[in-house]
Amino acid sequence: MPALLQAATDFQTIARQAGQLIMPEAILTLFACAALILDVMLPRNRKRVVAWVCLAGIGASLVSLGILYFNISSREAARTGFFDMIIIDNYAVVFKLMFLIGAALSILLSIKYLDTEGEQRGEYYALILFSVTGMMFMASGVDLLTLFISLELMAISVYILVGFLKRDQRSNEAAMKYFLLGAFSSGVLLYGISLVYGLTGTTNLAKIAAALPTVASANYNLLGTPADMRYLVLLSMILMAAGMFFKVAAVPFHMWAPDAYEGAPTSITAFMSVAVKAASFAMFGRLFLYGLPDLRGALEGDPANNIAGLPGWALLLGIVAAITMVWGNLAALIQNNTKRLLAYSSISHAGFTLLGLIAGNQTGYTAFIIYLFIYTLMNLGVFGCIIALRRRGIAGDRMEDFNGLVRKAPWLTVMMTIFLLSLGGIPPTAGFVGKLYLFMGLIETGNPWLVRLAILAVLMSAVSLYYYIRFIRAMYIEPESEPQPLSLSRPLQTALAVAVLLVMLIGVYPQPLIRLTQKAATSQGLKTYVYEEKPAATDSTDQPGAVPLPPTPPRR
Amino acid sequence: MEKALFIIIAVIAVAAALNVLIQRNPLYSALSLIGTMAALSVLYVMLRAQFIAAVQIVVYAGAILVLFIFVIMLLNAPKQQLQIDKQKGLRYLAIPLAGLLLAEAFYVVWRVQDIAMPVVKEGEEAVGTTWSVGVALFTHYLLPFQVAGVLLLMALIGAVVLARREGDK
After folding, report:
1. More confident residue, A97 or B50
2. What is the model's pTM?
3. For residue A7, which residues of chain B lie inside 8 Å, CB to CB?
4. pLDDT tens digits, residue range A144-171?
5. A193 contact B CB<8A
6. Containing domain of residue A169, as a range?
7. Portion 119-138 of A in contact with B at CB < 8 A
8. What is the ipTM for the molecules in this complex?
């Protein structure tokens, strides 16, 4: 049977590729399984060894990711594998690096936290590794099927981790809410995916991108009969966007975030607010920049037949980004629980990050990635400081717990201050670099509406300073509310020191990171878009101003 | 003909799915779910995906039966007064209906040889068979298949983590 022979040769190719392309993920999975076995063998008081094993796994994964990166750099081309199911390009590598750093720091933060909670168990670390595996496939997946399964791998691990403190009522409630809403949003996303598959007949993002200009044109001919499929295309795009808005917690799909963030173990809140969010954004970018680039601008109508044009996803994302920034920041002003406050702050940061996608130019994409990278570091730092406040009998998640911290732990206070200033976007820190790039990307487009959006973002950024400074006021000015000293463990100190050093380093000397992210932003297949100066002045029938950066996919 | 069949089956599937939500008794919901699954498997047959249709019946009907038992045992489904006795009239309708079904079955067995097999176009014969599903699963869809395996392992561990008794601390 020739087909069987063909299958056998295919299998050989797969085996060769597997050794290289999915090595970082394979290492993580193996270490997660090893952690599970080790957990059973270790006595109860030595479970933290599992954490170090998992950290070693992340280290090994980082090394193999590095090898992969040099491999694609020396070829100067992205590598696809598994019948175009995944692609290893700079975009994927940078995001994977981000997840690994986020996971490593989260594990360091977790060791002390789980000791305090009396829940030091090995499954915790294994679940973190499984979820990172899912995230890494989300960054490199270019097929709707791979993307969706990886998303679920990540999400289900995190649902379990949110409910990990079984004796804590709040943790249970948070896990339940997060699970129900997360499952619902996955359903919405899947519905959008199924419509796209029905419209284009493929789940491969590159093929979808190639087919969409035909399908989404006003005069599409379906099996000989003219059919206007643009509404269905838009509906599927909106459903997919809604699913992704849920995952990144953008208003109006943010309701789960404050409850889930408040109830989850603080170390998992930290992990969720950075790695899960970054992974969801990685998939968001992949779906919309790589799979649906032609739906960005307006879908042209047909004036001859009186068919109106329809707006694309740039408008949808713009509106959502604007209300996310406004609502996230305003709601954060009145919170008194620090985890809740940071949940709203993280919602507003999701709004900021969306700006990079909306700008649609090279600077915007660079900003999108660089902002997530910096946000990972600074937000983990802030949550690390909150974990440091957690002691026996003190939850450490009320604003009063920060009172007079400077007299108890001056170094911790200084680090917390740096993280907060970075989140607010104050110059010598990394947060400033990220925000600067975001605003530059929007202003470079020259589109009056996007410039207005940038102005709104600057205003909201100023508003956010108010609640970040509330922390600083509590730490430096308020008198101590309780005398109990802090207990800082060595891993926690290490994680905080690494985060603060990177935040300062990137703030002072951002060039290496910018170079890396710029490479990622120019990955093949990520289409850029140039806004016209005056929309009425030109009447070209072609896709207006679409810059064919890489060779444009062939039209069907 | 095929379109009419599709519409009938689709309506049954949607109606059964709605019934899952409407019924207050979890047992009836589970039964309606089986109805949805059966209707879906007919749709799969119509798409020439015989293997998936069979799997749909075997796995889902089996899984649903397990779910059924779990619902009774764990959730303590509310005991409802069954109202069979009040519907005596239906008993007389049942006999002719059963006869009709039997006649239909005999007719199908008798006539099945005379029916011309549908003409299979080139390249279509392999779609939906176990062989083609297997080849697709282990070549084209190998990666999602493996990731799904990791996903199931993780879900299993998660279930153990969440369900384990606290007493053994």
Report:
1. A97
2. 0.87
3. 135, 138-139
4. 999 999 999 999 999 999 999 888 888 9
5. no
6. 7-521
7. 121, 123, 126-127, 130, 133-134, 137
8. 0.86
